[in-house]
Amino acid sequence: IADVKEDIDHELVSREQIDSKIQEMAARVSDDYRDKNPLVIAVLKGAVNTLVAFTEALSIPVQIDFMSLSSYGSGTKSSGTVTVRQDLSADVRGRHILIVEDIIDSGRTLAWLVAELKRRGAASVEVFALLNKPSRREVDVDVKYPGYEIPDEFVVGFGLDYDEHYRNLESIAVLKPSVYQGEQA
Ligand code: PRP
Ligand code: MN
Ligand code: MG
């Protein structure tokens, strides 16, 4: 990849829009979780940018942990199975958990994680997801703090990747289909 801008078709969500949605949800979460000492769990790698901006915008004390989950591999379609690349370091038993995700597509990653955290004894589990592609949903997930609904286009940036590239773009953009043309179905 010589020039990232060459691979981008158009911007879909600007950095201003990203920041304003994150501020809005951080204000709601700060109200809802006052005195609850929540554990904020970011789903790596995609949620890392959202996690940083979101937790900086909170006005309450929180703890932070990470779980690295993969459902995509190197393609543009979810594989349907969730792989744990790296687990949490915290014990979630009795904790109020807020999961931070970059995007909900089939819903499989989140459905698996919510069930797993409840199985481990979390007191409550809620979700903030910056982006949502409802047209691709295969599994139902309850999202208390929803971000932007987007159409069924493959997006990258602000943590989101295609084959591990483009995560460091400052806003969310649609990739030119030519970039992933010829990919194995
Ligand atoms: C992406 C994205 C979400 C998940 C959404 O992660 O960051 O975690 O897929 O898709 P789903 O709703 O169909 O499960 P990915 O597996 O690409 O790993 P990454 O975050 O490391 O890029
Ligand atoms: Mn992810
Ligand atoms: Mg990915």
Automatic annotation (TrEMBL):
Pathway: Purine metabolism; GMP biosynthesis via salvage pathway; GMP from guanine: step 1/1; Purine metabolism; IMP biosynthesis via salvage pathway; IMP from hypoxanthine: step 1/1. It comes from the Bacteria. It catalyses: IMP + diphosphate = hypoxanthine + 5-phospho-alpha-D-ribose 1-diphosphate; GMP + diphosphate = guanine + 5-phospho-alpha-D-ribose 1-diphosphate. It holds the Pfam family Pribosyltran. Residues 16-162 form the Phosphoribosyltransferase domain. Its EC number is 2.4.2.8. Keywords: Cytoplasm, Glycosyltransferase, Magnesium, Metal-binding, Nucleotide-binding, Purine salvage, Transferase. InterPro entries: HGPRT (IPR050408), Hxn_phspho_trans (IPR005904), PRTase-like (IPR029057), PRTase_dom (IPR000836). The keyword Thylakoid does not apply. Its main location: cytoplasm. One of its GO terms (molecular function) is guanine phosphoribosyltransferase activity. Its cofactor is Mg(2+). Belongs to the purine/pyrimidine phosphoribosyltransferase family. NCBIfam families: HGPRTase (TIGR01203). PANTHER family: HYPOXANTHINE PHOSPHORIBOSYLTRANSFERASE (PTHR43340:SF1), HYPOXANTHINE-GUANINE PHOSPHORIBOSYLTRANSFERASE (PTHR43340). This is Hypoxanthine phosphoribosyltransferase. It comes from Bifidobacterium imperatoris. The gene is hpt.
